[in-house]
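Entry for 5'-O-[(L-methionyl)-sulphamoyl]adenosine complex. Fields follow.
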Amino acid sequence: MSRSYYVTTPIYYVNDKPHIGHAYTTLACDALARFKRLDGYDVMFLTGTDEHGQKVEAAADAAGVDPQSFTDRVSQNFRDLIGVMNCSTDDFIRTTEPRHVTAVQALWRRLKEKGHIYLGSYAGWYSVRDEAFYVETELTTVNGEKRAPSGAPVEWVEEPSYFFDLSKWQEPLLAFYEANPDFIAPESRRNEVLSFVRGGLRDLSVSRTSFKWGVPVPDDDAHIMYVWLDALTNYITAAGYPDTDGQYSKRWPADLHMVGKDILRFHAVYWPAFLMGAGLEVPKRVFAHGWWTVEGQKMSKSLGNAIDPAALVDTYGLDQFRYFMLRELPFGNDGDFSHRAMINRMNSELANDLGNLSQRVLSMVAKNCAGAVPQPGAFAAADEALLGAADALLESQRAAYDTQAFHKALDAIFDVVGRANRYVDEQAPWTLRKTDPARMATVLYTLVETIRHVAILLQPIVPGSCERMLDQLAVPADARDFDRLTPDYRLVPGTPLPKPEGVFPRWVAEEEAGS
Ligand code: MSP
């Protein structure tokens, strides 16, 4: 039976249109899902929308639509984005679906039966934007108004509420983090969570009574469930919960919850506590990535500067956008989107370094090797060094993907691309054509085989372009998985190749193009 891999994005609030921040998380998960599939895993890649709560209710109200029609419409935007970004999701969950309502209510009953939920009343601060409760000491005052640590406004709430006994989970959580040092990444974020939990935990309000848009609490429908308890449960709903036979045991616990740093606490503190309380397994890892700004500014509705990923795909190309998002920042860090940076990356790395290499080499093969994979002679040290570097890539890719270090994965691949470019210049096959055609064939063979490795390994990041590169190398569709990256599956000399075509166009500014 093949190994399984279950990766999730957060489920996105349907109060707004998707922007590049949302696209980022989904793209990172897509790269992981594709990588693991190519590496022989049985993958489940989950995304979806978070549709209950006060924030969504308010957004529906503002739009003058009932919440269900509103969420139907906005959820569809997130679903459409998956297609626009060529993401390979396996399931799309909506928290308004019956399967999810069943799962959340089952989880609630279980927590209640085990004595972890009790009725009380809440009096304290709440931020609708964060959908989070805060204590006075966490707040700051800006222009006379109290604000959450995220900068979001807060309001005073007093209402009957059920509580989850989070305070009892401090020690079990700390023991769990200690025993599972890779559970929270990156390290700096792990330390933040540890110090938050060491500071002590208060019982968590897990139901609301002052509005209606949510999952009713079983046997007490004056209450609806706190949106985060509802939302986090999506990860087990999609694995089949409450049916714990069948798919569930194969999928759960998830291998990775990918989240933005803003919602790490919910995933690394509340979620494992709920699961432990219910006697369910805890996910293997939560990775909190950084936050994008745009041209130096926070993306926000009020500034009107949120960037639509579909517009970037239209302007620069799909794979160019995918590449940029996963290349530009050390994954985990915050970063800034700018058009200039986008153009630099696509022109210097995709068009110049990789595109030119492949176009140059394939054109020489088309002209000088009768349009077929060249027949190599004995390999010289320089050829073996390049092929060796290409063969060694898979291991470094695995290490990078397993730690969600997409930038390192790409660094390693582009290091080989750089070596290949230097090798072309040093070996000068255009000169060998006249002086030593047999040697020219060996050099070109070494290069096309190196390009095969690069194109197979870049599939998770730029799938469409790699498909075209591999078509040009006449690599059959069923020979593009990572198990083909060994010397046993080298390109077969004499295989006819199609006419080469450029895969990574340069982006030329309109004023340059017009002149
Ligand atoms: N609905 C909750 C998550 C529930 S998961 C059980 C939520 N939704 S959200 O729509 O606000 O999306 C949050 C996620 O979108 C962030 O965690 C992050 O993954 C992504 N991003 C939103 N804006 C972002 C940036 N500006 N930059 C990077 N990622 C951002 O929170």
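NOTE: The longest strand covers residues 117-127.
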